From TrEMBL:
Transmembrane segments: none annotated. Residues 1-26 form the signal peptide. Keywords: Signal. Residues 36-74 have a biased composition (Low complexity). Residues 31-87 are annotated as: Disordered. Residues 75-84 have a biased composition (Gly residues). Residues 90-220 form the DUF4232 domain. This is DUF4232 domain-containing protein.
Length: 230
């Protein structure tokens, strides 16, 4: 018998079979405050899903994922306060995060992580989300968190219903030595929106390396729209 239910993680809904306590950990922020790279406004996008009812309880910060290199899932340098022109930074509870377009080529897979403003007020996203693979009912981190790709970034203003995206790129483990990679099947991703300490769980059943520093993924800064993979 398959049991489907809805649970909350870091203020954002997760609906999946067997999601259980997978959404356990929260405790790091992914991006920084806006750099002077410019500002974009995302137009509202029709939504086909209904946001879950809000709750007053907040996720308790837990231990931050650790890893080597400049990882997007380690602590950010932003405050999570006001964004461009006094518009508040988007909070985790205000966002719905889902996978978008996906494409595999040259030994790697790219998938768009799409952030939708499901709240009733305009907010700003700027910087890098924190991303790591997780597995098991407790949401145990697998391998190292994704490293940041690229340089500067611009702020993206999200009106209610507007979208922004970041591209997550991860190696196809079949192209890596199994002895050093130690591959396993993961359940999904733990995603921290920029400047937030509460994360969301995004289902994504793929193979990933359990060994730290091997087969490490990359994440881009936030950009306007849902994105297109090439």
């Amino acid at each position: 018998m398959t049991i489907s239910y809805r649970t909350r993680f870091g203020g954002v809904a997760c609906a999946a079979a067997g999601c259980a306590a997978l959404l356990g950990l929260a405790g790091c922020s992914g991006g920084g405050s806006p750099s002077p790279g410019g500002q974009h406004t995302a137009a509202p996008t029709p939504s086909t899903t209904t946001p879950a009812a809000s709750t007053s309880s907040a996720a308790s910060p837990g231990p931050a994922p650790t890893g080597t290199g400049r990882s997007a899932a380690s602590g950010g340098d932003g405050s999570g306060g006001n964004g461009a022109h006094g518009v508040a930074t988007c909070t985790t509870s205000q966002l719905r995060v889902a996978t978008g377009q996906r494409n595999g080529a040259m030994g790697a897979t790219q998938v768009q992580l799409v952030f939708t403003n499901r709240g009733g007020r305009t907010c700003v996203e700027a910087g890098y989300p924190g991303v790591s693979f997780v597995t098991g009912d407790q949401g145990d981190q697998v391998g190292s968190p994704a490293r940041r790709q690229g340089g500067g970034y611009s702020s993206v203003t999200l009106r209610p219903g507007g979208t922004a995206h970041a591209t997550f790129r991860y190696p196809q483990v079949g192209n890596l030595p199994s002895g050093s990679c130690k591959p396993t099947t993961v359940r999904g991703l733990r995603v921290y929106p920029p400047d937030q300490k509460a994360a969301v769980y995004v289902p994504l059943a793929v193979r990933a390396c359990t060994a730290r520093g091997v087969g490490v993924g990359e994440i881009t800064a936030m950009r306007t729209g849902t994105g297109t993979v090439r």
